[in-house]
Amino acid sequence: GENVEQHPSTLSVQEGDSAVIKCTYSDSASNYFPWYKQELGKRPQLIIDIRSNVGEKKDQRIAVTLNKTAKHFSLHITETQPEDSAVYFCAASKQAGTALIFGKGTTLSVSS
Amino acid sequence: GAVVSQHPSRVICKSGTSVKIECRSLDFQATTMFWYRQFPKKSLMLMATSNEGSKATYEQGVEKDKFLINHASLTLSTLTVTSAHPEDSSFYICSARDRQPNEKLFFGSGTQLSVL
To answer: Which residues in B1-116 belong to E strands, given as ranges?
Structure first.
């Protein structure tokens, strides 16, 4: 089955800096890659997603890149703010709407 | 976006009792729902896939007799933790996808189960 690896497990940045979180997946049949932000005790919130027919997608300060050949995808957050502090999860599935397999999460801390 | 409601948000029970968690899609019909379990500061682990009108598909290592899943309608799936023990204490969260092919999964708000 699918296995998703995520790095780093923790990331501390200064406000205004950029943050990058990387994930790799094992199943070449996976073609949908969402990123979720989860605050303590809350549900995961989708922040951005990408399909395998696209190499990059951007939404304001957030961008995701995908390298299908290497089977890795990354989340980029620019101009970080303290409210960006949370746990971020990458995930993969064989098609949008099917079960997601999650990475282990990255705890992002943005200090002002 | 679509709304998935999950209840209760928190439950404390004695060891040996059973606990039922409900997951409802409020404004769409969900043919498939997924149940995840999350330990503190850990990732979401897929437990089972719940299909309306048929038996749930459990992931390897998840006891189907321990975690009973029922998906009786297009808007409701339930997870019952039977004969709960302290090791079952965890954050349980459901997610649902629309009946029509939909790009995104929607998550419930989660249930924090504490077994004494």
So the answer is: 4-7, 10-13, 19-25, 32-38, 44-51, 57-58, 67-73, 76-81, 90-97, 106-107, 111-115
A99:B104 CB<8 A: no
Per residue in B65-97, pLDDT (tens digit) is 999 999 888 899 999 999 999 999 999 999 987
For B88, the 3-state DSSP assignment is helix
Report d(CA B52, CA B72) in Å as an integer: 6
Minimal C-alpha gap between B16 and chain A (Å): 25
Q: With contact defined as beta carbons under 8 Å apart, do B64 and B10 qualify?
A: no
Task: Quote the DSSP letter at residue B59.
Answer: P
- How confident is residue B28, by pLDDT bands cut at 50, 70 and 90? confident
The parts of chain A modelled with pLDDT lower than 50 are none
A41 close to B (CB below 8 A) = yes
User: B23 with B9: CB under 8 angstroms?
Assistant: no
Q: What's the DSSP call for residue B61?
A: T
Partner-chain residue, chosen from A41, A44, A99, that has the shortest CB–CB distance to B46? A99
**Residue A43 sits at the chain B interface (C-beta within 8 Å):** yes
